[in-house]
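Q: What does the assembled structure look like for these inputs?
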Amino acid sequence: METLFKKFMAQFEGRVLNVRHCHGIPVANVAKEDLSMMARYIHQDKAMHGTLSLLWAVDHRPCEDRYELLYLFTLRGYQEWMVLTIDLGGEERVFPSITPVIHAAQWYEREIRDMFGLIAQGHPDLRRLVRHEHWPKGTHPLRKTYAWNSVLTREQGEYSFNRIEGEGVFEVAVGPIHAGVIEPGHFRFSVAGEPVMQLEVRHFWKHRGVEKLFEQKLLTAGVPLAERISGDTTVGHALAYCEAVETLLGLEVPLRAKYLRCVFLELERLHNHLGDVGAICNDVAFTLAHAHCGRMKERIMQLNDQLTGSRFLRGIIDVGGMQVDLAPQQFSQLIGELDTIQPDFTELEKILAVNASLKDRLETTGLLKVRTAWDHAALGYVARASGMDRDLRFDRPFAAYNLLPVKVPRYQEGDVRARMQVRIDEIHESMRLIRQIQSDIRPGPIRVEPTTMPQPGDWALSGVEGWRGEILYFVMAGEDGRIHRCKIRDPSFVNWPIIQQAVMGNIIPDFPLINKSFNLSYAGNDL
Amino acid sequence: MFKMIKKSLKTATVTGQYTSDSDNAPPVQCTAEAKRKAKPFRKSLTIREVDTGSCNACEMEMNALTNAVYDIERFGVHIAASPRHADALVVTGPVTVNMESALKDVFKTTPDPKLVIALGDCAINCGVFRDSYSVTGPVDRHVQVDIRIPGCPPKPTDILNVLAELRRS
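A:
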């Protein structure tokens, strides 16, 4: 491991100010002026082939009067991580933008500007992102000087959308409140005739200040909040949070708990993927599949309820292990249920495969090219349907996945059909994994109690492959076991800008279908 | 064709097997006032769902109500695409600063008489997001709430129970 990081160090010998390892992840502190050049090297060098996975800032006050910006790169093969950091001391408020070099940095840098008031110099688009136009000027909630329970006042202001002008070009505004039972978000289409020329996604209607709320919590008390970041990814977020905190506290979770975590993560993947396959079919008016997938999803949800007392698997994962154990007969009940669902689903799959009108609507719709996906550092099934072979369960195994080799499906087509096919393959894979866990799992303890306190300023990064894709958590410890900073990255935050590319050239009536094939979380994106 | 007939003859009912567990269900909070307001909608109720900042679990449960297992349409309850067509607004989530004016607009566009149902703990008391800088308060701070359905999220059966209670009035 770390061969690529060594290559990076050899390339920039003498220019890297300081190197350290933070819980196994190499961290290189560099000068502000060198950042763009180094980022370009990591991104474009054939051997490094790095994608930007996360970009975030930390306000070190009151301990030190400086801001730190951290850039997490996933290097070639998606197995190796490295972090670049730069410091902004004293009154410095400007840092060099890497968006001109790495497209994936675009929203991160706008977010940092909104939340910290740090300005990315050279960024092509410095409009507000999180703060809507009515927020007062100078409100930067993640600065340590900003009180978490402040009351915001209102100002007048107007957001300017990207405009295409010309004869026959008109705009279609959709949202924030949509026709379906879904979350709020605004979409602005520019169309001339039928095809979409441009889509601008405007989100953050549901911004609830989650990252600031975390800073008021003890490290061991953050799970309920993490579970409510995006309800459909309850287990994914809770697990990612716990993994980060457990690394900080130096806890070794018992093996049985690790296996149980995998079971519940796969159950969550199952019910969401089943729902999605049905919903995609429903968007092209193929309601038979929707009805069947709906009832299969409901069976899994009811099973969740019977096994844990929560349909969304809430309150079962905790720092140090599990709150809920599964008895052998519960395992048999679970496998029995899967045994009845799987043949039903396989039968449905055959119907889907031969339906010509369905094929006609799904194929070549919402095309996301391999190159575009890579440029935007796409995640989850979106990436896997566009030729990117990334899945954290395989690349950087967490929980018990080092003992459970995962078969990662991959398609090159990048259309709605491919994204549905990835889900179908993953449904079967999840069922196989659960069966394997049942035969591998051994009795044992399911939790350990934390004994140590982390040093203030110590931090950990964790990644979990939720059903939607890679969930990242950065947790930095503060005084007395509190959280100094918690950065959350739901895969939706990365995949939303990509949808703008995928709808280009499609007709507006296909947008709901494309949107459903991405099925991104608004809550996880807005935080 | 014959294969399909054979299949449908061989397969028992695959839906309709939800447990109503009425012992554990939270008590239905329907005031006399709410029941009076719900009277015109006893046989047909059209709902518009408005998310003002929930975690999307409440939305999933609302969607579950329309699946083949719960099938809320059999009680004459429909989900409308626009607030202009709605008799009742179902509001989920704490009201965020960015959604506050959208909620008020929706309330204004919904024709009278109307019901407002606050769905889930967040809509009732902001839940884990209470006092955050970007949360302006529970739903009843902005619009008058008639019915509250607690839970995080409330189960589909809980929602059905409340709607059944309203019909009974």
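The CA atoms of residues 72 and 160 of chain B lie 8 Å apart.
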